[in-house]
Amino acid sequence: MNILEIKNVTKKFGGLTAVGNVDFNVEKDSIYGLIGPNGAGKTTIFNLITGIYQVTEGEILFEKQRITKLQPYQIADIGITRTFQNIRLFKKLSTYENILTACHYNSKYTILDAIIRNRKFKVGERKLHSQVNELLEIMGLADRKDVIAGNLPYGLQRRLEIARALALRPKLLLLDEPAAGMNPEETIKLMELIKENRDRFNLTVLVIEHHMDLIMGICDKIAVLNFGRKLAEGNAQEIQTNPVVIEAYLGEEEVTLA
Predict the structure, then answer these.
(1) Closest CA to 157 of 111, 89, 217, 234
(2) What is the domain count for the chain?
(3) Do residues 46 and 208 make contact, with C-beta atoms less than 8 angstroms apart?
(4) Reduced to 3 states, what is the DSSP secondary structure of residue 153?
(5) Domain boundary residue, one of 169, 198, 213
């Protein structure tokens, strides 16, 4: 079953076509990769899925429902969350507070409950703090919970951003270059973490990444973009051996080493 369907989607900015007639389907519970050179249109597709940009032509379906006219907050409400290429944490809040802020989306109490601090509020707060602690443990951040987010090492800031996205309990998680700035060891750990979280939270993951070892190691299916158009689609082996992809993006030497 496809959870996400991109159908002949085009996005134009004036006379510039950033994404041209792109189509692909993402199966439920899969990890799907988007790769391509800088400027290929990958992040633009994320912005179209999440409602930041409006589609010029075509349509996007999530669980068979058209979402191309929805606002970003409505898309988050139906179960799509994302991380960003440039980390967007609350840099002056602690690691714990960053995740707690996102967990409040799941709170069941009202403002009045919070003012009078009744039983509903207290039970709700205990549940939220339990969720935060669980995510801290899962993401390997428990020992840094009191550290100000802006003071975390870059790799841990990336983990924190993923934890905050997971706090919204998404069905579809969009990761925009989650391994950017990480060393090879950190990238391998992140690769395992993404797979574990997919299974733990019954997630579908759509990931943009330039680290070929990560993409080839975790993705069930991969689409290659170039100049805003889909160049190829298939599993890791098919992409690595596709001569069009080799010429346009991977390079023969990199494929040989993969």
Answers:
(1) 89
(2) 2
(3) yes
(4) coil
(5) 169
β-pairing verdict for 57-62 and 204-208: unpaired
Q: What is the CATH number of the domain that holds 62?
A: 3.40.50.300
Residues 178 and 247 in one domain: yes
CB atoms under 10 Å from CB of 67, counted, come to 20
Range(s) of the domain holding residue 17? 1-79+173-257
Dist CA 249 CA 226 (whole Å): 8
- Round to whole Å and give the CA distance between 245 and 48: 24
Residue 212 tokens read as 């070929």
CB 26 within 8 A of CB 18: no
pLDDT category, 258, cuts 50, 70, 90? Answer: very low
CA angle 164–158–31, rounded 5-degree value: 80
pLDDT digits (tens, 9 = 90+) for 145-181: 999 999 998 889 989 999 999 998 999 999 998 888 7
pLDDT tens digits along 97-146: 999 988 877 777 777 777 877 787 788 778 888 889 999 999 999 999 99
